[in-house]
Amino acid sequence: MTASYDPATIALMRDVLHKVIAKVPPQHRTSTNQAAVACRILATAAQGARSEEALTQQAMAEVKDMFTGPAAMRKLHQELAKVFG
């Protein structure tokens, strides 16, 4: 299934992305993190959710997952192992 977006929806998704990324600490505003948030926004819109509230909620959930999810924990453990052996 291919989703299509009208110009207003594209503008809304872009605005949500910018607002959410602005809440991320500057050192974590990497292109990878921005892409992950954008993907979550696109996936949410593709499922039919087109409100600012729904898109923002899912974008913020992605940010939370980046910092507290399994991948973030693995990265933290790897960094700690480098420091403490």
Feature tags:
elongated; single chain; mainly alpha; 4 helices; 85 residues
Describe this structure in words.
This protein has helices at residues 7-22, 31-46, 52-68, 70-84. The chain has one domain (7-84). The mean pLDDT is 90. It contains four helices and no strands. The chain is 75% helix and 0% strand. With 85 residues, it is mostly helical.
Helix and strand arrangement:
Elements: H1 7-22, H2 31-46, H3 52-68, H4 70-84
Helix pairs in contact: 1-2, 1-3, 2-3, 3-4
The total number of structural domains is 1
Structural class: mainly alpha
Q: Span from first to last CA?
A: 48 Å
Query: What is the overall number of helices?
Result: 4
What do the pLDDT scores average to? 90
3D shape: elongated
Would you identify the regions where 5 or more consecutive residues have pLDDT less than 50?
Answer: none
Radius of gyration: 15 Å
Largest sheet: none
- The arrangement of helices and strands along the chain is HHHH
Q: Helix content range of the residues, please?
A: over 70%
* Beta content: under 5%
- Record field, number of beta strands: 0
Outline of the structure:
The protein has 85 residues and is mainly alpha-helical. It has 4 helices and no strands. The protein has one domain (7-84).
